[in-house]
Write a structure and sequence with these properties.
- The chain contains 43 helices and 31 strands.
- The protein is α+β, with helices and mostly antiparallel strands.
- Helix 30 packs across helix 31 and helix 40 runs parallel beside helix 43.
- The radius of gyration is 38 Å and the shape is flat.
- One of its GO terms (biological process) is coenzyme A metabolic process.
Length: about 1100
């Protein structure tokens, strides 16, 4: 009877939820055979082979059953449902596990569900079928293949596939990048993939858990193998993670094609044949050793080789293309973000950096990041600090990624030239390609008084023993894959060279024999990983030298590293079709010929070569100084390399090389390249001594030592290319002296905010001299500088707004470039108002029409030209200080007014709140940025973009006001005037709403709100634009409504009556003002009225 009752209870069938036989399953499955044995057997449980326990239920026992074999009670205990169809499968998978009324069955528990308060829930919130899975590899890769890549996966770091599903992060996305997070927040895709996080969230390979396993599958999440091992060629075979092609198993990889980045590129011996077959290049080093270098022609191929794929290229249709990071989209985004950066104020530049780089400490850009106390600890007899300007090299596309490169240098034109060259190389040649060898440094130990043959024998015989002993002193670096890798002996003979005499024999008791005329140098070749290497190399030498002396004897001399690191080289190159080399008014052929002739000059003459190489090191040293590197070591290594190794038969040579080559399509290509021995570090040394170094490394995306050296090589090459191009086409002085003029002005004592105008003055005089700058100063006694630091951070991605307006009164166009966060996660938006701007996407056109209306470049140019007429007639106006800045402020005010008017029309309530917030925030004098993210979170994009842009434009107005006006009273008055304009717009909307409800006020009171010409322009504009439409706010409509004559037909007569009514009030105000002004300002008043009448076509009989 007991069994019968249990059987009846368990016959409940549900087609929606799994059968809930949890208790029965617990009684039988995995339990020892006991008194309930018969009960479990009747339900369909199987006994293990040893007869001791009941086995758990598997899918094979329940699904795909033979005909007429009913779904057993054991299967239903587990959670399968009874279909009752009598077909091959009477057992079916439940349609769902989640339930608000039942606990979880064992099947659902195995699928990740949990019983919570007697309900079955998915704690991870990611449900696929009956599986409850975590956000990660399984959800984003396995279960999104036939659907779009979920937004949560994209936020986690996965990449949407062109067709469907998500793509995993590739090698370049993860390796040595700060994207491996230990927590659940952030971009965890690399960790999902199998990488591990090291210090600073830097991704690296999992050294503890390699892919090969005889007991665990490749997808065991507990040991972080997952997709990485499977993508690396390993296979899950019977629960084991195995390599089916063991000949090519290499650490974490099992490559059936035997062509991978690690397997080939990291080879220290001759490039394996399988790598050469795949497209890698077997490169012979200067010392006779070999390197396996990546291919250099992937862009020209119709089909990607295996080496190109390993390098990161992708087969797109019938073309081998660089990865998405170097797509047109990436170029457009980079270009729009940095366009006009050099014309921004310093405050605007820092603001933009804060938005792009989270947690960037901008205060150290102001003070240099080094305290006097810290400086005192760094050097002896410290009395202070000395500063250098820090700028940004822009537009550097290196291996498909864009870099913003910090450069510390006092020489003008260096940063501008490097940025210009980088942009040209990116646009015409696809950017720089770089490579580097292993970070091997050489440490030297000097011996004398030794026998040559015996010493060589002893060193060779004890080589491994010496290496093991040496590595005992550097276990940390050995654990990271470095340490002493080789020992070589070098014999130096006095007789081999003609040397200056030292007269050492004059020292008493000095006896020189033949053995003493030879020096024995023991060279330790040491892999220093991500350190520069000086300290660790010298430590190893001090530790190892006595040990070697015990083996070989002799007299021990000095122990020191060599800065000539010929085994630690970095290279960069670019290729540009000859037809795309045209620059300024010169053809591509002429530019290329000029550069090659200048390069040949340096090849033939060491005097020219030294200047040639100095230009290269202008760029390299600037990056080294900005990132805390030993620039003196870099200089010594490069110059020695130029003298001895570039071309030993030609003497001191240029470090760069230029040539004309042909590609596979027989097209002429201009190629520039550089390869230099360069020792830099991304860890240790002085990097921790200055906060600025940390900031600058963040700007460079935290490169390791090899990547940093490659960046420096690219900068040096770009710097040299720019110099040779300028020398051969227009001469170096034209561009150089324009920038040098800034230094002249500063040296003459010109305040920073007047430097640009001082330069203009010197150019007009034709004399860029200190005396000319001092003449300029005599006309100006202003000197003060106000800067309010703002450390608040904004989030990416950034949207931009760009305006470029031609101005006949200036030598250059007026440019306003705003970068800001409009709290839109999908993609940034880039709006612009330019003369030639016909290629905007429809989405951007719609956005423009919503926040600016139909007004575009023509309207803006017209209104600005009219306002340009309204100015004081001042003698020598061209020489006025900061004249260009005045024009920029005028343009900003027009944009702010236009924006505010249209945004109030779109959403008056939200716009009023934001404008008042901005005004109140300014009054608090807070150094923080106004955060609108919460307020605008759920608003449509036109409100997010428009109000965010409005806030940023007002902020930029304030910054430029600081640069232009040093008188606090005048500055505050101008700022208040801007908000009076905005407040008038707000009041207009409030008054209009009252009018529509017939709640009128005294019209004369309204006319007293504004000043004369604000009222005059409002009347002229509203009469000219008037139409019988109460949806449009209009002052003339208000006047008609107040008099209850809005529907009358004789509108022209009513317009004349309105002009007469308003004119009387205006004349009274006008006379009151003009009586207090001198003749110049009265003339200005008349000009203003004329401009207003002209702009809005006011007839002469319509008197105001």
């Amino acid at each position: 009877m007991y069994y019968l009752i249990l059987l009846i209870i368990t016959l409940q069938i549900s087609v929606l939820l799994c059968d809930n036989g949890t208790q029965e399953y617990k009684i039988c499955a995995n339990q020892p055979v006991s008194k309930l044995t018969q009960f479990c057997i009747l339900r369909g449980y199987k006994i293990s082979a040893d007869g001791k326990t009941f086995l758990p239920i598997t899918a094979d026992q329940c699904l795909n059953l033979p005909v007429k074999q009913q779904c057993s009670l054991a299967c239903r205990d587990y959670g399968y449902v009874y279909s009752g169809t009598g077909t091959d499968t009477d057992c079916a998978v439940p349609t769902t596990c989640q339930s608000s009324t039942d606990v979880c069955c064992p099947l659902c528990i195995d699928q990740g569900f949990q019983t919570v308060s007697k309900t079955c829930q998915c704690p991870q919130k990611y449900i696929v079928g009956i599986q409850c899975i975590s956000l990660g590899w399984d959800y984003c890769i396995k279960y999104s293949k036939n659907d779009v890549c979920p937004s949560d996966c994209i936020s986690r770091g996965y990449v949407p596939n062109e067709n469907s599903g998500c793509l995993p992060p590739n090698y370049f996305t993860c390796y040595n990048q700060p994207v491996c997070f230990d927590g659940q927040d952030g971009k965890m895709a690399c960790v999902d993939y199998g990488w591990i996080a090291q210090e600073g969230n830097i991704c690296n390979l999992n050294e503890q858990n390699r892919c090969y396993s005889s007991s665990e599958g490749c997808s065991d999440l507990n040991i972080n193998k997952n997709g990485f091992c499977i993508d690396s060629g390993f296979q899950d075979i019977n629960g084991q993670c195995l390599c089916v092609s063991p000949n090519y198993e290499y650490n974490y990889y099992c490559w059936q094609n035997a062509v991978s980045w690690d397997l080939c590129y990291k080879q220290t011996d001759k490039c394996p044949q399988n790598c050469i077959d795949g497209g890698f290049i077997n490169f012979t080093n200067l010392d006779g050793s070999f390197s396996c270098l990546p291919p250099q022609n992937c862009d020209t191929l119709d089909k990607c080789t295996l080496a190109c794929i390993a390098y990161g290229y992708q087969q797109v249709g019938k073309k081998c293309q660089a990865p998405q990071c170097h797509s047109q989209l990436a170029y457009d985004q980079n270009s729009k973000l940095w366009n006009g950066f050099y014309k921004k104020t310093q405050k605007e530049r820092l603001d933009q950096l804060q938005k792009l780089y989270q947690n960037l400490e901008t205060s150290c850009f102001e003070d240099g990041g080094l305290t006097l106390d810290r400086a005192n600890l760094m050097v002896e007899n410290c009395i202070g600090k000395i500063s250098l300007p820090l700028g940004l090299g822009l537009n550097f596309n290196i291996n498909g990624s864009y870099f913003t490169i910090p450069m510390a240098v006092e020489e003008p034109s260096v940063i501008a030239a490097a940025s210009s060259a980088a942009k040209f190389i990116d646009e015409q040649g696809g950017g720089f390609k770089t490579y580097s060898t292993k970070p091997i440094m050489i440490g030297q130990i000097q011996f004398s008084e030794l026998d040559v043959v015996k010493t060589q024998f002893l060193i060779e015989n004890h080589k491994n023993e010496i290496i093991s002993f040496a590595n005992e002193s550097c276990q940390n670096i050995v654990n990271r894959g470095g340490g002493v890798e080789d020992i070589k002996i070098q014999i130096l003979n006095e007789s081999d060279k003609i040397l200056k005499n030292t007269n050492i024999d004059l020292i008493p008791q000095s006896s020189i024999n033949n053995n003493q005329k030879q020096m024995f140098i023991i060279n330790l070749h040491i892999n220093v990983c991500d350190s520069m290497g000086a300290n660790i190399v010298n430590t190893i030498l001090e530790h190892t030298a006595p040990y070697i002396q015990n083996i070989i004897g002799g007299k021990l001399g000095i122990k020191i590293l060599s800065n000539l690191c010929i085994e630690r080289r970095s290279g960069a190159f670019f290729e540009i079709p000859l037809k795309k080399m045209n620059w300024k008014a010169s053809s591509g052929e002429k530019v290329a010929q000029g550069i090659l002739e200048a390069y040949k000059f340096a090849q033939l003459d060491p005097f020219r070569a030294s200047t040639h190489n100095k230009g290269i090191l202008n760029g390299i040293d600037a990056v080294a100084l900005a990132t805390g590197q030993d620039w003196r070591s870099i200089e010594s290594s490069c110059h020695a390399f130029a003298a001895l190794f570039v071309n030993p038969k030609a003497g001191y040579q240029p470090l760069t090389h230029y040539e004309i080559i042909k590609n596979e399509k027989n097209e002429l290509i201009f190629k520039g390249s550089i390869e230099i021995p360069i020792a830099v570090g991304s860890k240790g040394g002085v990097l921790a001594s200055n906060r600025l170094y940390e900031n600058n490394m963040k700007l460079l995306k935290y490169p390791n030592a090899q990547k940093l050296s490659e960046i420096m090589a690219a900068v040096g090459l770009g710097q040299n290319f720019a110099a040779l191009r300028a020398l051969s086409i227009e001469g170096i002085q034209k561009g150089h002296m324009n920038l040098h003029a800034k230094n002249i002005a500063l040296a003459a004592g010109v305040p920073p905010h007047l430097v640009e105008e001082a330069i203009r003055y010197m150019k007009l005089r034709g004399k860029i001299q200190t005396a000319t700058a001092k003449n300029y100063l005599q006309a100006h006694d202003m000197f003060s500088q106000v800067r309010i630091e703002d450390n608040n951070l904004q989030q990416q991605p950034l949207s931009t707004f760009y305006v470029e307006l031609e101005c006949e009164s200036l030598e250059e166009n007026i440019i306003i470039h705003v970068a800001f966060d409009c709290f839109r996660q999908e993609k940034p938006l880039h709006l612009s108002i330019e003369k030639e701007n016909n290629n905007q996407e429809q989405e951007l056109k719609d956005l423009h029409n919503k926040i600016f209306g139909p007004k575009g470049y023509k309207w803006l140019n017209k209104i600005f030209s009219q306002l340009e007429i309204v100015k004081l007639n001042i003698e020598n106006e061209q020489k006025l200080p900061t004249r260009a800045l005045v024009y920029k402020l005028k343009l900003l005010v027009i944009i702010i007014d236009l924006l505010a008017a249209n945004l109030l029309a779109l959403n008056s309530q939200k716009s009023i709140v934001v404008i008042q917030l901005i005004e109140n925030f300014k009054q608090t004098k807070s150094s923080r940025r106004l955060d609108l993210s919460t307020l605008l979170k759920n608003e449509p994009i036109e409100i997010k973009y428009g109000l965010s842009l409005l806030s940023e434009c007002i902020r930029i107005f304030e910054y430029n006001l600081e640069s232009l006006v040093k008188n606090e009273i005048l500055k505050n008055a101008l700022y208040q005037e801007l908000f009076l304009i905005l407040e008038s717009l707000i009041q207009t909307y409030q008054y209009w709403d009252k009018a529509l409800n017939h709640n009128f006020f005294d019209f004369n009171s309204f006319l007293k709100i504004g000043n004369v010409y604000e009222i005059e322009i409002t009347i002229a504009r509203d009469v000219q634009k008037w139409k019988r439409d109460l949806n449009e706010k209009n002052l003339f409509s208000y006047w008609l409504l107040e008099r209850n004559i809005f529907q009358k037909e004789n509108i022209e007569n009513l317009k004349l009556e309105f002009f007469g009514f308003a004119g009387k009030i205006l004349n009274t105000k006008r006379e009151a003002i003009k009586s207090k002004l001198d003749e110049k300002f009265n003339i200005l008043c008349d000009i203003t009225s004329q401009v207003i009448r002209s702009l809005y076509n006011v007839d002469n009989n319509q008197k105001l």
